[in-house]
Amino acid sequence: MLQRVTDDVLVHQSELLRNNTVVVRGPSGVLLVDPGVTDTELRELAQDLRELGDQVTAGFATHPDWDHVLWHPDLGEAPRFGTARCAESLRELRAQPDWRTRVREGLPPEIVDEVPLEPFGLVTGLPQGAIELPWEGPAVRVLEHPAHSPGHAALLVVASRVLVVGDMLSDVFVPMLDEAREGSDPVEDHLAGLRVLESVADDVDVVVPGHGSVARGPQVRARIDLDRAYLHALREGLEPDDPRIGPDVPAGWEWVRDIHTGQARGVAQRRAAAGSAGEGPAAGEGPAAGEASAR
Q1: Pairing of strands 30-33, 56-60
Q2: Alpha carbon distance 265, 287 (integer Å)
Q3: Nearest alpha-carbon partner for 265 in 243, 237, 241, 245
Q4: Is the N end or the C end of the chain the one with fewer CB atoms within 10 Å?
Q5: Nearest to 144 by CA among 100, 79, 70, 197
Q6: DSSP secondary-structure letter at 286?
Q7: How far is it, in rounded angstroms, from Cα 72 to Cα 40?
Q8: What local confidence, expressed as pLDDT, does residue 104 receive?
Q9: pLDDT in tens, 121-174
Q10: Which whole number is the average pLDDT over 176-198?
Q11: 211: helix, coil or strand?
């Protein structure tokens, strides 16, 4: 299951959504980032680590979306970290009496009975503004930013020059916008997130996205540029020239265009509302309407 990216960074890709689980090896164990996504895959991941002689000593969730906060008893009871905002979002979810039902309703129907929920979302928040992960392994910088989801963070494995970016810089998904909230602009927030990633691009040889293939060398900046071009097109009301929603997308991934269509509609609605000074949005229109199908 595990593919070597560098001497101390390995990746496992799940089948359904091409989720990437990242393993960072240290002298006393491994850091496991965004493990997933089915019970079988998580069991096999744990078995692979045992065969390598590695135990899990820390976990990290890049953000609070369901497919990034999973765990399995076979992985052990290592502390699992996320940003303070990520952990707060998960605590609020788990405090709801029907949280399991809510999570299951958001799962792809193909795997709804295969995703383990008991250890779901049990993430400890790092101190506000933390910039380094507290674990006994290679130095890992925490780069929090406002794109895609509350408390989203990338991890820079400094010595290995590997950047783990969660739901950013994918070659199969267009940039997926966060919900519109009062005082926020999802497009500008995503652009701000790209600037955070770009700020360390000179220190990176490899990018591991949450979904899709690993980017190396010149592909790193090419993916930043592609995501920025997509967002600029959305902002300007233009149709993006983007291979992830073009005619040559891989079979089975045509539905990504539906994500784009929903996002473009939401951005257009907010632009129209902003242009109607003092009139407010039209009846039935809401800032999240376009993003509902995208999340």
Answers
A1: parallel
A2: 10
A3: 237
A4: N
A5: 197
A6: -
A7: 10
A8: 97
A9: 999 999 999 999 999 999 999 999 999 999 999 999 999 999 999 999 999 999
A10: 94
A11: strand
Tell me the three state secondary structure of residue 30.
strand
Report residue 273 as tokens: 């509302």
How many Cα neighbours within 13 Å face the side chain of 10? 17
Q: Render pLDDT for 214-224 as a digit per residue (tens, 0 to 9).
A: 999 999 999 99
Give yes or no for a contact between 31 and 23, defined as CB atoms under 8 angstroms apart. Answer: yes
Q: What is the mean pLDDT of residues 30-45?
A: 97
Q: Is the pTM of this model over 0.85?
A: yes
Q: How many CB atoms lie within 10 A of CB 51?
A: 9
pLDDT at 279: 46
Distance between CA atoms of residues 252 and 186, nearest Å:
27
d(CA 89, CA 218): 35
Task: Please name the amino acid found at residue 147.
Answer: A
What local confidence, expressed as pLDDT, does residue 278 receive?
Answer: 53
In contact, 42 and 116? CB cutoff 8 Å: yes
Q: Cis link prior to 37 (omega < 30° from 0)?
A: yes
Q: Residue 263 above 50 pLDDT?
A: yes
Q: Is the bond leading into 162 cis (omega within 30 degrees of zero)?
A: no
The answer to whether residues 212 and 171 touch, using CB atoms and an 8 Å cutoff, is: yes
> Distance from CA of residue 202 to its chain's centroid?
22
The whole-angstrom separation of Cα 120 and Cα 69 is: 6
Q: Rounded CA gap, 96 and 235, in Å?
A: 36
The candidate with the shortest Cα–Cα distance to 165, out of 122, 124, 119, 213, is 213
Distance from C-alpha of 3 to C-alpha of 10, rounded to nearest angstrom: 5
